[in-house]
Amino acid sequence: MIRFEQVSKVYPDGTSAVDGLDFEVAEGELVTLVGPSGCGKTTTMMMVNRLIEPTAGRILVNGEDIAGVDPVELRRRIGYVIQQVGLFPHRTVLDNTATVPFLTGWKKDRARARAAELLDLVGLDPSVYGPRYPEQLSGGQRQRVGVARALAADPPVLLMDEPFGAVDPVVRERLQDEFLGLQATVRKTVLLVTHDIEEAVRMGDRIAVYGQGHIEQFDTPASVLGAPATPYVAQFVGADRGLKRLSVTSVQQEDLEEPPRARLDEPVGPAAARLRAEGARWAVVLNERGELHGWVSTDDLARVGSDDLVVGNLARRMNAWVPMGAPLKHAFSEMLQWDAGWVAVLDGARLVGVLTPRKLHEALRRSVEADALGVAPHEVAFDSVADA
Ligand SMILES: Nc1ncnc2c1ncn2[C@@H]1O[C@H](COP(=O)(O)OP(=O)(O)OP(=O)(O)O)[C@@H](O)[C@H]1O
């Protein structure tokens, strides 16, 4: 979708910003460009919408050499989100969002209806925020408007330059998640510039790690963290890359354990006896459809003992859960937040299994070793601490 062929840029004062860039971003792919200040990320990005012209090489968008495309026409096909957002202060949020449709000659009503749809999509109620002016929004809300505006004309390509850089870390993480959710539906081809390796790893299908003016490694987050191509990349991704892997390694079926189970409508006495016999101190409580209702302690069941009650009467709320496929980091933070010894893993509302700290550790080690060996994670066999 976006193709760089031996692209270089030397500024008029002789500064060589980038040299010999050669890579491709596939349709619907999100590629993050990451590297230290001044390494050429922004230059790379601004060449795609012709705010900067390369001095050598060509850039193709959808197979077409952009050197031959009128820049104004080109920019209408490419959404652009920048850190400073650049909203017009004297226009309402709704009209700011509708900027590009207005420019391309849409009727006002149609453009505003589209803008309202997009504000909704980025989590801003158009009836509340649409009539406001940019200064009446928080930083995070302004960033959302920036994203909505860039999507308004439904461009196939999005360029994002430090789009979440101006907000605090908590808001940033929320905006990142929201954008990933959005991207799963809109599937734009995205180039995202950041100097933050955490953001690059979380957001990117692939990451381009920049050295000075060139790409040191172009690969998936798991490979960049697991098998840095050069000492420079290893140093850039940091010594705690094992921890960072938590965000890119997802919970898999083979990581799960089968927990003791009890049914919501099971009488308390027999349930207690059965769990005791199994040596289980607790059980997950499921309804007749196999959906998670909560959990119950065997001691509580035994203490009550009455057959007038069912397990559901004593069940407690299960706070610590994640959807199947969630990053291990999410599971880990649920464990910490709820001080839980295990986390339920759900497919919709249905319980698939539970993740324990031991399994979480194994999953992480398996992912690291799989990369080192160049095989899929489930092909790695190793002795776990518990087997020793
Ligand atoms: N107009 C210009 N004239 C001369 N040199 C420039 C110009 N714009 C950028 N540069 C230089 O080109 C190099 C790459 O800059 P660029 O802005 O692409 O880096 P970056 O990786 O985006 O940095 P940052 O993260 O700080 O924004 C830097 O050395 C910068 O000083």
UniProtKB/TrEMBL annotation:
Record-linked InterPro entries: AAA+_ATPase, ABC_transporter-like_ATP-bd, ABC_transporter-like_CS, CBS_dom, CBS_dom_sf, Gly-betaine_transp_ATP-bd, P-loop_NTPase
Keyword hit for Repeat: yes
One term of GO molecular function: ATP binding
The keyword Transport belongs to this UniProt entry's keyword annotation: yes
Pfam families in the cross-refs: ABC_tran, CBS
Keywords: ATP-binding, CBS domain, Nucleotide-binding, Repeat, Transport
Residues annotated as domain ABC transporter: 2-237
Superkingdom of origin organism: Bacteria
Residue span, CBS domain: 255-311
Family: Belongs to the ABC transporter superfamily.
Stated name of the protein: ABC transporter ATP-binding protein
Annotated organism of origin: Streptomyces cremeus
